[in-house]
Amino acid sequence: MDNRNHIIELVVYRLKNFPFESKRVLLDQTNAGLTKLEGYLHRKVYQSTEDPYLFLDYVAWDTLENALNGAKNMNEIPELVEFIQLIEKTELFDHFRISNQHFVYHQETKTVALAVYQLKENDNHRIGEFFATYNTEIEKSVGYKNRVLLQSTQNKNLWAERVFWENIASAKNNEQFMQHNSTFDAIFSIVENVIIMKHFLEIS
Predict the structure, then answer these.
(1) Which of 174, 182, 185, 204 is 20 to 30 Å from 78 at the Cα level?
(2) The domain spanning residue 59 has which CATH number?
């Protein structure tokens, strides 16, 4: 279970080979390799529901320094070298802190939506309003369970959220709900760019 002091590393990447052939390396072997890095806490792996080659790693570290050192030292761990060689392309690699703009209830499911977005710098005074409205409206969605809101350690205007849903249908229906909810029209003007918006299932 995460707390607000943890550093969350988000990595979205595409594998070269058919994922099921690489599952042993992707999960058990890589997890074993990560335990050799100082400050590593835990990792969850998710596979895209639309693209079987696309994955999300949600990795928790005790400090930002150890997270950054871990990224530098991965090539020194044989188990992790084999994992790195599976990757064709990295679409996202960044470190985040859990934000106080949303209370985390620690209710998780295996179905998640990952959203990564940039907010406009000159609208920082509206961030509280943006998240307050978002928090209220998303809880009205059928199948919504919880979400973890994250703010980049390097860019205060870069945000990410891992949203937990009862199932994929609920997650996708929420997109339609948001698009047709007039309450979002004004507050969404604060969003400069949506970098990632994808659905994933946790694998084990």
Answers:
(1) 204
(2) 3.30.70.100
Instruction: Please report the beta strands in 99-190, taking only residues with DSSP state E, as ranges in sequence order.
Output: 111-119, 144-152, 158-165
Q: Say if residues 93 and 160 touch (Cβ distance below 8 Å).
A: no
Number of domains in the chain: 2
pTM over 0.90: yes
Judge whether 1 lies within some domain: no
Burial class (CB in 10 A: 0-12, 13-18, 19+), 12: buried
Q: Are residues 83 and 140 in the same domain?
A: no
Cα–Cα distance between 109 and 167 in angstroms, integer? Answer: 8
pLDDT tens figures, 37-69: 999 999 999 999 999 999 999 999 999 999 999
CA 184 from centre of chain: 22
Instruction: Provide the residue range defining the domain that includes 64.
Output: 7-97
